């Protein structure tokens, strides 16, 4: 099975406007260091994870049909590209009902009536949709706001996506047990150092990868203020793959 990472970056992307840090300077010069906002695509079930603000650019390159969309949480870097899905007549959205209410609002505000469907998922519950199973698990990311990750079971393969999460995920035994030994772990690695209740730093993202012990781990949602791509590759070592935009991964 194939998975395509469309965007490997965090909220401001790399380069960030007006920033002259090493990563932003390099990204302006060399396109391979650019990071658009996080999103990924699973061809087998024509599923998009998170309609990022860069969705127009992602769709233009991908040129594939999207039938279903999973939304981890309603921060703008994970949902603001939703109106770009207007090119598709039928789309089914899956997320927590609070996230879906924001998705619906974006649809109604920018596109009006559509034949789109919204399927609310309760946290920590398995749903069987025939060609795939899904579990939306809660994470600690922004106090008072709803945020979660997904476990997708497609055929024989299990893909776990953390979404944006604080380091508290390392102590979440229930979730760790569910995602243990997944075929693919997509873990956020936003900053150099973790920010409690917000984002994972490099060390904690690696710790998570080691705890989960997935067949493959992909690190994503990388901020411009993080280490350079090469430094990150050195730091994560055997623990996983440092994401790049439009990376194709076999699992
Ligand atoms: Zn984010
Ligand atoms: Zn920068
Ligand atoms: Zn977020």
Automatic annotation (TrEMBL):
<dbReference type="GO" id="GO:0005524">
    <property type="term" value="F:ATP binding"/>
</dbReference>
<protein>
    <submittedName>
        <fullName>ATP-binding protein</fullName>
    </submittedName>
</protein>
<keyword id="KW-0067">ATP-binding</keyword>
<dbReference type="InterPro" id="IPR001279">
    <property type="entry name" value="Metallo-B-lactamas"/>
</dbReference>
<feature type="domain" description="Metallo-beta-lactamase">
    <location>
        <begin position="36"/>
        <end position="224"/>
    </location>
</feature>
<dbReference type="Pfam" id="PF12706">
    <property type="entry name" value="Lactamase_B_2"/>
</dbReference>
<dbReference type="InterPro" id="IPR036866">
    <property type="entry name" value="RibonucZ/Hydroxyglut_hydro"/>
</dbReference>
<keyword id="KW-0547">Nucleotide-binding</keyword>
């Amino acid at each position: 099975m194939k998975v395509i990472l469309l965007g490997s970056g965090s909220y401001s992307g790399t380069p960030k406007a007006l920033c002259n840090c090493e990563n932003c300077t390099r990204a302006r010069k060399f396109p391979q260091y650019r990071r658009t906002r996080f999103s990924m695509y699973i061809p087998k079930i024509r599923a998009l994870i998170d309609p990022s603000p860069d969705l127009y650019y992602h769709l233009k390159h991908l040129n594939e049909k999207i039938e279903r969309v999973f939304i981890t949480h309603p921060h703008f870097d994970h949902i603001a590209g939703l109106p770009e899905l207007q090119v598709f007549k039928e789309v089914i959205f899956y997320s927590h009902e609070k996230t879906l209410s924001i998705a619906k609002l974006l649809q109604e505000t920018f596109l009006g009536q559509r034949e789109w469907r919204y399927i609310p998922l309760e946290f920590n519950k398995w749903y069987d949709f025939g060609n795939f199973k899904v579990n939306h698990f809660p994470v600690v990311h922004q106090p008072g706001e709803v945020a979660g990750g997904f476990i997708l079971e497609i055929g024989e393969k299990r893909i776990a996506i953390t979404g944006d999460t604080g380091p508290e995920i390392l102590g979440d035994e229930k979730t760790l047990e569910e995602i243990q030994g997944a075929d693919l772990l997509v873990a956020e690695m936003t900053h150099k150092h973790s920010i409690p209740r917000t984002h994972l730093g490099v060390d904690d993202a690696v710790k998570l990868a080691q705890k989960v012990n997935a067949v493959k781990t992909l690190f994503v949602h990388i901020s411009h203020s993080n280490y350079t791509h090469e430094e990150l590759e050195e730091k994560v070592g055997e623990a996983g793959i440092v994401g790049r935009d439009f990376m194709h991964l076999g699992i």
